[in-house]
Amino acid sequence: MKISILPSIGKTVLITAFFALIALNYGFKVEMSEQEWLNWSNKCLISSFSPAPDINLKKWEISLTGDYFLRLRKTYQQGKQEYFSFNLHRLTNVDYINSDTTGMLKFSTQADDIIVQTYEDPEGNLDSMATTLDLPVHNMNVARFDSLKNALNYFRMKSL
Prior knowledge:
Distance between the termini: 75 Å
Order of helices and strands: HHEEEEEEEEH
Structural class: alpha+beta
Oligomer: single chain
Low-confidence stretches: 1-6, 13-29
Organism: Mucilaginibacter angelicae
Protein name: Lipocalin-like domain-containing protein
């Protein structure tokens, strides 16, 4: 009696190829929706943001909103808050300056378009505007930076 393994292997390969083709057609998208871009951008910013070590920093929040604002809020132990915000339609450039372990995202706007505010500051509350915002990051390789930059440009164009 002769047993052949070849037809069995051929059938397995054919079935695997069929399901792989279905996965490629329906499981992966070439283009992302606006909500997917927003979710990915927020995940990237949250996982990459690396504030300087400060024992007084209680919490921080960073987000890209559905109305195309990039917002950062830092809250300190004694209640002081620092708040930065700008609309992406005012964004002119995003640079990434890196070192071996950390880096800095530098957001530049057309003019003094970045809102800078402090609350509950013992030295007095601040309400001003800026042209650049430096955001310390870690784990930001070139491919990830390029993807984030593409997402920000996508939202900048949507906000015009």
